[in-house]
TrEMBL record:
Keywords tagged on the record: Copper, Metal-binding, Oxidoreductase, Signal, Zinc
Protein name as catalogued: Superoxide dismutase [Cu-Zn]
Pfam families: Sod_Cu
Ranges of compositional bias, category Polar residues: 137-148
Cofactor dependence: Zn(2+); Cu cation
Species whose genome carries this gene: Methylobacterium hispanicum
Task of the protein: Destroys radicals which are normally produced within the cells and which are toxic to biological systems.
Signal peptide start and end residues: 1-21
MF annotations from Gene Ontology: copper ion binding; superoxide dismutase activity
Catalytic activity annotation: 2 superoxide + 2 H(+) = H2O2 + O2
Composition bias, Basic and acidic residues: 105-114
EC number per UniProt: 1.15.1.1
Lineage summary: Bacteria, Pseudomonadati, Pseudomonadota, Alphaproteobacteria, Hyphomicrobiales
Amino acid sequence: MTRILPLLALAAGLAPAAALAQEPAKPGEQTKPAEQSKPAEPQAYETQIRNNKGDTIGTLKLRDGANTLVARVTIQPGGLPPGWHGMHFHAVGDCSDTEKFEKSKAHVNHDQSKHGLLNPDGPDEGDLPNLFAGQDGSANAEVSSETPLTGEGGLKDGDGSALIIHANEDDHASQPIGGAGARIGCAVIK
């Protein structure tokens, strides 16, 4: 009977799993497939990205799904110097010291991994791909991360976190930040 059921289900236009989930029919009644659960809606968060003068230069939009976090970075024209820029999640959601953004502390790194997407002993939880700003200083990127928005080890923990954009590109290997240099953009995540 087990081998026949999938064939009967296909003949009836049902997926085999749906056929198995049907309740037995009573005489004179039609069967209904069991309710299929819908995936949970991703949690969303949006915040402004500010430069070292405290001016808004763009937005950070985060969507947290079941298996990954998606971060969309949008920088307006004139927001960044043209070229590649390192980008990381930092451990504290504080961008109040606009001159250097040092209150955001080091990278999110609960398991003490080494820095670098290309490092065999890494990456740490804050590591992200580089961001490229065009000649007009604008940038658009969408990247994913295994670091969740909420829950244990999430970006929105007790002291929050920050997205930091650096002056230089990250080489994804050298310590501690891949040569990414000064912090020139910051977005609070709380």
